[in-house]
Amino acid sequence: MTSQKKYIWISMVAIALFAMSSKVHQGPEPTDEFIYGDLLPDAPELAKRGNYKVGVQTLDLTNRDQLDILKTKDGITPKYDRPIRVEVWYPAIVEDNQKEIEIYDEVLGNNGDPKRPLIPFQFKGRCVRNAKIDKGKKPYPLVILSHGYTGSRLLFTYLSENLASKGYVVVAIDHTESTFRDAAGFPSTLLNRSLDQLFVLNEMDRLGKPGSRHFLSRAVDASNTAIIGYSMGGYGALNSAGAGYSPAALKFFQSMTGGSTALELRGTGTEAYMKSQDSRIKAVVAFAPWGMASGVWDSTGLTGMKKPILFVAGSEDDISMYEKGIAAIYKGCTNADRYMLTYMNARHNVAPNPPPVEALKEGLHIDEYLRFADSVWDQRRMNNINQHFVTAFLAQYLRGEDMGAYLNLKENATQGNWPGFKPRTCIGMEWRHDK
What we know:
The protein has 11 helices and 13 strands. By secondary structure, the protein is α/β, with parallel strands linked by helices. It has 2 domains: 1-31; 41-434, 3-Layer(aba) Sandwich (Rossmann fold). Strands 1, 2, 5, 6, 7, 8, 9, 10, 11, 12 and 13 form an 11-stranded mixed sheet that branches. A two-stranded antiparallel ribbon has the order 3-4. The longest helix has 24 residues, at 3-26. The chain is globular. The chain starts with a helix and ends with a strand.
């Protein structure tokens, strides 16, 4: 080898070794971006996903012969077949070489509001569309998710995917006339929120039965159900599970609808409401439930709530209100084994996914951002904490597991490290438990 060739060869080896060394010192390259529901470094223990892969499917259901309350005229309310779209997440069989990624289609904006036009966007989730369900040895407990006014069945994918990975069938509802895409008059939400939840419960029960020829056949146990509701979804969940609407709520509804008495079917003490109590509902999670500060609930109606219930609230909630709203509901549910997690200084948005990048663009209405975000808390941090506590609560009341270590806590997070939380991460939260 000539001295010139030897010099070139040595130089090439040196360059290659330098490149390899540089790559090593740079650390591992990121393989994917943060996806809603992923864990932050300070996520509590039970926030991590379970052992199941996750599938997802969209179902279109029809609740026939329902009151079309928004078309009430001269005291007469026609009927219609009410469409209900749901998203179903479930334990799935996914091949090792198949990437667990889904692209969801969502919108910013609010139907009918010229200041907030509908703007389509997409975001990622960790599941596989139309994957085969893993039926396992026995049917999975059912969890029904219910959004606010307005909202979407895709508002809580961080939670729905997480719970499905832990062995639940999770069904999130698009409440017709109450979504971002089709928002309409508020009386529809007042009347239909609990009715939609109970209808979906019945449909999941029907589809889960042997012989239904549906993918959920023998896979979902509707007799062991939890309802999780946010804002107006929490309003509906309370009523679905036993808290009747107050006389003031019925009068309010009549004033908005020209005298309709349709809400009386869900009113405290009525025969129809008493007969509607559903033993399949075993537990409720109410994120920022609406209504107390507006007179929807009273002490009599709230005593009808006898299911275990977890409340999640922000101490500065200016929509449902805190002391006169959520905390007052908590105090009034005297017949329930009840818990309340409070994010100190947070406002109303304690439940949704984090804001998408599209909501950060200049010129948009501020509510496109604030629909998903809190001005004090990192939404991803709240998502992880919600995953942790909802996991513990559902394991206790749907699976019968002893989760006392995670649910019997000191009231103030700063009084001592809560079990499951990393050192120095218990701050800014309060916890209550009464039964």
